[in-house]
Amino acid sequence: MELAEKDAVFNIFDMNLWYGDFQALHNLHFSIKKNEVTAIIGPSGCGKSTFIKTLNLMINMVPGVKMSGEIKYQDRNILQGSVDLVQLRKEIGMIFQKGNPFPQSIYNNVAYGPRIHGIKQKKKLDEIVEQSLKDVALWEEVKDRLDSNAMGLSGGQQQRLCIARAIATKPDVILMDEPTSALDPISTLKVEKLITKLKEDYTIVIVTHNMQQAARVSDKTAFFLNGEIVEFSDTDSLFSNPSDKRTEEYITGRFG
Amino acid sequence: MKDEQTITAVQQRLLKSRQGKAKKNEFTGRFIVTVAAIIMIVATISITIFLATKGLQSFLVSGVSPIEFLTSTDWNPTADENPSFGAFPFIFGTLAVTFLSALIAGPIGIGGAIFMSEIAPSWGKKVLQPVIELLVGIPSVVYGFIGLTVLVPFMRNTFSGAQTGFSLLSGVIVLSVMILPTITSIATDAMISLPSNLRQGSYALGATRWQTIKKVLIPAAIPSLLTAIVLGMARAFGEALAVQMVIGNVRAIPDSILEPAATLTTIITLNMGHTTYGSVENNTLWSMGLVLLILSFIFILIIRYLSSRRKL
């Protein structure tokens, strides 16, 4: 077993996952590096969404899930023992397929995370809300209607609001589970630009169906197939010079 | 050539006959559902018109002052001299039992709903669902009977303020149990139908279950939860039998919840048997019915308003 890489945020060793009797992930073994965008691609049902949900243990909400092996985050195996989920998820934010703002004001959406983690002063919250919304380039669009309901925003704005909501808790990592699959091309472009910008401050793991997207935004790419990692390498080399036949077939569109 | 012609002819005939049948079915189906709808509309309108004309007669024909009827606390319709028709104590009683029972059953029902949807979705539903269905199935006279046998003596022996045990509070408690299933089942539906991505969004930010329930799920479900309470209240204020058996049926506004009271429905059921049709007293009972109809109309408006505020 190779040594854990030093600048890695997650070190994954021999990780397996079962839904009941069905094994969805097999012997995963790779590292996710700090301040990089790691893309996970693969056909439907390959386990990529399952995998990303293990990183913040959202997978625990699914009944009947069993896991073995290691996911080391900050030198701790989060798959074993009692993990402080509140702290873990404060540090590892998540963005879902479809923007899921709470049916509350824009302000309260962004302030939700900081509030549950104990920030009460109005001034501090104001600052966080403004900064988070600026970080996702939404501030100019919504600054005059922070009190209006977030459900009134467009789909793309909702998704960016959710990203703002996630970064408001000052996480280290942001997980994105097909964040643009429900968005139009222009909104998609905005989110992709955002990902490139957020990389400076955060480590990003993105699951995507869209191979061009993976090629555009990511530094590393992992190709999943039937719950296994077929290939994991620099995005450029994976797309220009895949070492595995199956990767080549997938990225050239022969299946999936 | 000839064969081909026959075939097309047969095809056309088949096609036509099928079309004809479909058309006929179409018409029959449409006819049946239209008639059903018309019957419902006609029934509702006729009841409303009947109740309105009968209810207004005490004011238009018998000369009872509507202001006296709605505001006076003096009810003595059978007095030989100067009969009085103040129904305010009954309107007050109706509103009091309705709001107080909603105050008790609302939090319990919503609490049960949250338990079923968030805390123990599997066995919570298995246990609570049959309990709720059972509560719905018990006839109101049985509720009244239990109240009369258990609750009224209990009140009498426990509280020094309750002399007879028949009291507003007894009525409120019986009604609370009766409206609990309405509130719980509607509130449960409201909680369950919340999109699961709200829960995920909140948990993914590190929120605990209780924070998620309190700060995301309940606010999101609030219009539906209020609808549940209002529907419970609508059931409470229309209930007559069970309330009548435990509330004491006196003509005055109670000084405390431990004193007996009366509601519009209890006065109607108590008096409709011994008043003659067309008499002033009988007419005033109809007026009470009209007041109930107007109250229920107001409840419907509130529900409509709340439903329109639902965002999800």
Automatic annotation (TrEMBL), chain A:
GO terms for biological process: phosphate ion transmembrane transport. The keyword Transport applies. Pfam families: ABC_tran. The keyword Transport applies. It comes from the Bacteria. PROSITE patterns: ABC_TRANSPORTER_1 (PS00211), ABC_TRANSPORTER_2 (PS50893). GO terms for molecular function: ATP binding; ATP hydrolysis activity; phosphate transmembrane transporter activity. Residues 3-251 form the ABC transporter domain. Keywords: ATP-binding, Nucleotide-binding, Transport. One of its GO terms (cellular component) is membrane. InterPro entries: AAA+_ATPase, ABC_transporter-like_ATP-bd, ABC_transporter-like_CS, P-loop_NTPase, PstB-like. This is Phosphate ABC transporter ATP-binding protein (PhoT family). It comes from Paraliobacillus ryukyuensis.
Automatic annotation (TrEMBL), chain B:
The keyword tRNA-binding does not apply. Gene3D superfamilies: MetI-like. It is found in: Cell membrane. The keyword Transport applies. The chain crosses the membrane at residues 31-52, 90-115, 127-152, 172-195, 216-237, 285-306. One of its GO terms (biological process) is phosphate ion transport. GO terms for molecular function: phosphate transmembrane transporter activity. GO terms for cellular component: plasma membrane. Keywords: Cell membrane, Membrane, Phosphate transport, Transmembrane, Transmembrane helix, Transport. Belongs to the binding-protein-dependent transport system permease family. CysTW subfamily. Part of the binding-protein-dependent transport system for phosphate; probably responsible for the translocation of the substrate across the membrane. This is Phosphate transport system permease protein.
